[in-house]
Amino acid sequence: MAGKNPPKKKRQDKSNLTEIQELFCLKYVELGGLSGKGAEAARQAGSKAKDPDSVAAKWLALDKVLVRITELKKKVEEKSIDKGVMGAVEAQGILDAMIRANLADYYDSDGKPKKITELTRDQIAAIEELVPSMSGNIIPRLHNKLSALDKKLRTLGLYKQTLVLEDPYMKYLAEIARNQNQEKAG
Q1: pTM above 0.70?
Q2: Which of 5, 81, 121, 150 has its CA 20 to 30 A from that of 101?
Q3: 144 lies in a domain?
Q4: Hey, is 174 helix, strand or coil?
């Protein structure tokens, strides 16, 4: 059997991940577990593939890899909560509060701002700052909903990363300009 690569070692548990897949899962979670970080995790795990994006996509399509990543994320979350650090779940909750915030909820039926003690924890989390008004009332200014929604979608991995090597529109405009210059010169 000389000249053949030795078989990849398997982890001794039910998931049957290879060592490199286990390392990929660890690196993926370490890099934030976000969409678009798979290629970097594959590289750091030791993949020698010329196209680490395809390797990462292949591994991320495997149920056993996704299960392991979920397990690792849960462990990270538990440790963050145990240490009193804001965890991913709490951060997602704050983003959700910012997205759902409705300015009308901060005023009573007479149109006067509610007291801070009358607001829920989520409503308070959605306030960016309290601004004094001309009438002497304190008016809440809420966080930007679009920014919060953008962050939420990014953390969920719902944006696909695209790499534009050459913009066809810009290429077309450059070609038109080149033709015009040639016409002027000729």
Answers
A1: no
A2: 81
A3: yes
A4: helix
CB 98 within 8 A of CB 125: yes
3-class secondary-structure state, position 160: coil
Residue 33, phi-psi category: left (phi > 0), alpha (psi -120 to 50), beta (remainder): left
Contact status, residue 40 vs residue 31, Cβ threshold 8 Å: yes
- Alpha helix segments (H runs only) across 14-144: 19-30, 38-45, 52-60, 63-82, 88-100, 121-125
Crossing angle between the packed helical segments 19-30 and 52-60, to the nearest 10 degrees: 100
Do the domain assignments include residue 168? no
Q: Domain span at residue 51? A: 7-83
> What 3-state class would DSSP assign to 132?
strand
170 falls within a domain: no
Calpha distance 43→38 (Å, rounded): 9
Highest mean pLDDT among 78-82, 83-87, 90-94, 168-172: 90-94
Q: What is the pLDDT of residues 138-154, one digit of tens each?
A: 888 898 999 888 888 88
- The answer on 31 and 75 residing in a single domain is yes
